[in-house]
Write a sequence for this structure.
């Protein structure tokens, strides 16, 4: 397909424009108009008095990841690596370890998400067979001073976790 | 010879061939669990059922032999129904814990389920649960409820290694694989059962939970642990080796490999030579620093040579033909020597299946190469015990891992330059240590004890400061005012192989 090209010319300045002063006054009038509008707190003001007022979130806003918990408070995650395999940004690093209970068998020894790489697409949540990872906490990623601080770990992910209503697989039928 | 029809296609095979093999000749794939080319037929999984015209019910293709004029259907409604039923039966008590199962991604049950059934379970009662994560031996973990009772592992231990360490006990739903009371599954080939197991019932304790199978990339290589030269797949990911599996080669190792060879890649974990050492002081972990150390070594050897001293080449029979050729060329052109000292690893334990007594990967090849290049081959230990050793002022070792013999009394030895991949006792005695790639980090040819020339491919890139033997020796040669006549690995390879008159797959 040939891309459509629209040529945008630069029209020559007319007499009033080339005089400079008239355009200066026009610009100042625009500034003044906004100044008085904001001063009188009209409803169509484009800006918000942040942080006293906050813009409402979209219902689709996901926020930071969290790891859900079993009934006894231990992580539901079994370190199957489905999320890290599906992750298009390759931001999840999991190291698995043996769990002393053979009915659980496998748990994450470490679970790290690099928030600078993460694109918050939610594929990890879709891929998870255990309802262990969710991207629904609604919590903003905090600004950080160094790249290392943008990597969230297992404890941080579990701190936002809660119990899931779904049944953990394996020992049902 | 009988002519039979499989799915309306005619094929002529030897009398006594099974339907499964006749179908394979036509490229028709019949799904199996319990059948394996290397094991006796058990025909207990019933996955390979096919329809034979005139037979009262479906027949197992792995067991039934062909007849002249036989008509076989592998895709008829009856066969598809039978496969679906077999899978439903096998999955009745299977825990379907794929997320935590190491076999996921390379599981025959997963593959067959998606290809032939893909139906939801109709079971309404509780599954029969059995013991999980049972360490039945030093290398193998057993999950009894994942087992589909194909008995491949039992037949392997009974027929191939003849240790009969595994057995099936109980019956019906409660059938399980087990070891005998008070015994361990310590067969030297126990990890072969992990490869044979079509599901995740037997898993490797070493590989357990370390990596998911779909993240691994497999590179064809040759096992260096003994002189058999078993063909292996090296599974790598994230710049490291995670496991080693046998690669089928009917002429060498068939489908098998020993546990010792598979786990050998962990031997040098934490003691790899990743930078040059000069007088035991580490240099920077950069390529330039390694080359500077090589120049230092060359200067020291040159000093010995200019004072009329003798520098002798010590060659480990673990190195490849390419490395051996480069070293021998250096010895003849630069050191003016016609003696090479072979420094083998101590003998291992042989068995009737694969393992040989000679624990060196390339002794046959290097001894032949040295002979062709006009070298006299002697043993390092024997030479050190002889009076001639007293006069040697310098040693150049290529490869290590050999026991260091004591120096003869009154020895004039002042320099020992070692090209090695590990920090072993040889490195401890070296005045200059130059890092070279470990076995799976290099591309090279090896000659097995049967004389077969085999190529082992590079599975991993070596560390930054590590340099190939031929580039280190070329650098040293140029500093010592000579040239070896090769520039890169392909030129070393073609020179070495054309001299020996061999190529990959040929007999040396």
């Amino acid at each position: 397909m040939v891309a459509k090209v629209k040529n945008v010319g630069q029209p020559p300045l007319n007499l009033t424009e080339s005089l400079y002063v008239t355009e200066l006054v026009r610009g100042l009038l625009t500034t003044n108009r906004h100044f008085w509008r904001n001063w009188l707190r009209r409803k169509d003001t484009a800006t918000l008095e942040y942080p006293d007022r906050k813009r409402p979130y979209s219902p689709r806003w996901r926020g930071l990841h969290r790891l859900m918990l079993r009934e006894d408070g231990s992580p539901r995650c079994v370190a199957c690596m489905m999320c890290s395999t599906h992750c298009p940004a390759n931001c999840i690093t999991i190291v698995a370890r043996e769990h002393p209970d053979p009915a659980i068998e496998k748990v994450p020894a470490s679970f790290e998400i690099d928030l600078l790489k993460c694109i918050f697409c939610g594929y990890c949540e879709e891929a998870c067979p255990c309802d262990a990872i969710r991207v629904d906490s609604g919590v903003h990623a905090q600004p950080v001073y160094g790249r290392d601080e943008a990597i969230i770990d297992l404890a941080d992910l579990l701190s936002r976790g809660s119990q899931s209503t779904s049944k953990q697989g394996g020992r049902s039928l | 010879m009988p002519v039979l029809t499989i799915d309306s296609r005619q094929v002529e095979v030897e009398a006594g061939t099974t339907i499964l093999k006749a179908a394979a000749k036509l490229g028709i794939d019949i799904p199996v669990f319990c059948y394996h080319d290397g094991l006796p037929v058990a025909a207990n999984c019933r996955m390979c059922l096919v329809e034979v015209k005139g037979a009262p019910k479906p027949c197992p293709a792995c067991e039934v032999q062909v007849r002249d004029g036989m008509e076989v259907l592998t895709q008829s409604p009856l066969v598809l129904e039978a496969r679906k039923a077999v899978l439903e039966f096998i999955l009745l008590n299977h825990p379907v814990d794929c997320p935590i199962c190491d076999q996921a991604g390379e599981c025959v049950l997963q593959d067959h389920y998606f290809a032939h059934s893909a139906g939801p379970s109709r079971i309404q009662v509780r599954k029969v649960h059995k013991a999980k994560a049972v360490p039945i031996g030093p290398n193998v973990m057993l999950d009894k409820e994942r087992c589909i009772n194909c008995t491949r592992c039992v037949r392997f231990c009974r027929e191939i290694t003849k240790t009969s360490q595994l057995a099936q006990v109980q019956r019906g739903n409660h059938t399980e694989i087990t070891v005998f009371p008070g015994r361990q599954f310590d067969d030297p080939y126990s990890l072969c059962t992990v490869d044979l197991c079509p599901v995740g019932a037997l898993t490797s304790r070493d590989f357990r939970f370390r990596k998911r199978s779909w993240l691994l990339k497999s590179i064809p290589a040759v096992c260096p642990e003994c002189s058999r030269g078993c063909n292996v797949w090296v599974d790598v990911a994230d710049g490291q080796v995670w496991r080693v599996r046998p690669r089928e080669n009917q002429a060498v190792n068939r489908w098998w490999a020993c546990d010792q060879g598979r786990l050998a890649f962990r031997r040098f974990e934490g003691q790899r030579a990743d930078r040059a050492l000069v007088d035991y002081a580490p240099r920077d972990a950069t390529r330039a620093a390694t080359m500077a150390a090589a120049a230092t070594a060359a200067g020291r050897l040159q000093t010995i040579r200019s004072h009329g001293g003798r520098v002798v080449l010590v060659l480990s029979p673990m190195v490849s033909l390419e490395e051996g050729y480069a070293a021998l060329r250096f010895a003849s052109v630069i050191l003016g020597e016609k003696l090479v000292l072979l420094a083998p690893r101590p003998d291992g334990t042989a068995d009737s299946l694969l393992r040989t007594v000679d624990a060196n990967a390339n002794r046959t090849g290097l001894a032949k190469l040295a002979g062709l290049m006009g070298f006299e081959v002697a043993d390092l230990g024997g030479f050190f015990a002889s009076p001639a050793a007293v006069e040697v002022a310098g040693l150049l070792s290529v490869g290590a891992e050999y026991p260091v013999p004591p120096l003869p009394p009154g020895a004039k030895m002042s320099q020992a330059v070692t090209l090695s991949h590990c920090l072993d006792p040889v490195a401890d005695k070296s005045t200059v240590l130059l890092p070279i790639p470990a076995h799976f980090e290099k591309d090279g040819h090896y000659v097995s004890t049967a004389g077969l020339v085999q190529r082992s491919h590079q599975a991993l890139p070596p560390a930054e400061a590590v340099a190939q033997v031929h580039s280190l020796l070329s650098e040293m040669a140029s500093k010592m005012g000579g040239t070896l006549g090769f520039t890169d690995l392909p030129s070393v390879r073609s020179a070495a192989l054309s001299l020996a008159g061999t190529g990959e797959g040929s007999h040396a």
In short: The mean pLDDT of chain B is 94. Chain B touches chain A at residues 95-100, 104, 121, 123-127, 129, 131-133, 208-210, 212, 214-215 (CB under 8 Å).
